[in-house]
Recover the amino acids of this structure.
């Protein structure tokens, strides 16, 4: 019988092991030498929220699910009803088909069909690949429709620094000098501001997260050879890192606060490189417009420390 999270694809190489679930092209588990690098979930579980899902054709939120594109007013279903937003795209619960399955590499694909609020046809290919540098994920969009389409993407892993402890116990390095402030009730974007004006979110110098709440997008990332890198470490120096290039000028970071559900409360740190910020379908900031026949690719990497 097919597990609730879909077909299971196992990758193993160089001490890393990953399990990919076909629903949402989801990263279900990732370990190095048996140590978790992301918060896992069971193959026969319905995926908890967006844990490990591939986000497309937008990451994060579209405020009120409403936007204008090419002169047309469009309304998406509200998939975050408690805040009345359209959340994390259209493929998180889609079944992806296999394109390639190897011991250290898989390629999955799905097509976004024209629908209410997104009348475009985009083929999405997701590659996961293991090498000595960790787990690489690449998301490639191909506009197979007749009209230009708005596009954005990103992943949704919850990183784990050590086998014990929670977010409060770990040290974060986040090389971002600007943060997108949001409304406290709906998390709707307000303004991009220097982190110096919000020192609680300034992690350019590594420091423990402690009890800080974070659910914000960051930008103006310091890079080495074009690559930005976030690190999360435990007291013993072990941890996990995530790296990406300029195709993702934004990163969403979330401390996974669920005080009403202690089993998930602050058990992992969501780190989500993004090609565009929240509500980019309205602001236009870093929004990709895919012409008919055009492609766009973005990638990131998770590695053990």
């Amino acid at each position: 019988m097919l597990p609730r999270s879909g077909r299971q694809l196992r990758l193993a190489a160089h001490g890393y092991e990953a399990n990919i679930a076909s629903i949402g092209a989801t990263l279900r588990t990732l370990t190095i030498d048996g140590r978790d690098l992301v918060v896992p979930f069971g193959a026969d579980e319905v995926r908890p929220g967006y844990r490990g899902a591939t986000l497309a054709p937008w990451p994060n939120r579209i405020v009120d699910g409403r936007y204008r594109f090419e002169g047309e007013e469009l309304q998406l279903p509200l998939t975050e009803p408690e805040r009345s937003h359209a959340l994390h795209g259209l493929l998180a619960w889609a079944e992806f088909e296999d394109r390639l399955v190897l011991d250290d590499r898989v390629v999955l694909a799905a097509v976004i069909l024209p629908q209410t609020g997104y009348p475009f046809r985009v083929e999405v290919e997701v590659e996961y690949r293991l090498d000595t540098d960790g787990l690489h994920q690449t998301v490639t969009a191909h506009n197979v429709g007749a009209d230009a389409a708005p596009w954005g993407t990103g992943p949704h892993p919850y990183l784990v620094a050590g086998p014990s402890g929670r977010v409060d116990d770990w040290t974060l390095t986040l090389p971002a000098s600007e943060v997108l402030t949001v409304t406290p009730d709906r998390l709707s974007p307000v303004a991009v501001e220097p982190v110096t004006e919000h020192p609680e979110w300034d992690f350019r110098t590594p420091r423990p997260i402690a009890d800080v709440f974070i659910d914000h997008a960051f930008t103006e990332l310091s890079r080495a050879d074009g690559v930005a890198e976030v690190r999360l470490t435990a007291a013993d120096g072990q941890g996990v890192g995530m790296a990406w290039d300029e195709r993702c000028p934004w990163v969403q970071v979330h401390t996974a606060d669920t005080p009403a559900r202690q089993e998930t409360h602050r058990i992992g740190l969501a780190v989500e490189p993004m090609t565009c910020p929240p509500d980019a379908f309205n602001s236009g900031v870093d929004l990709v417009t895919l012409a008919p026949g055009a492609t766009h690719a973005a990638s990131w990497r998770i590695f053990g420390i």
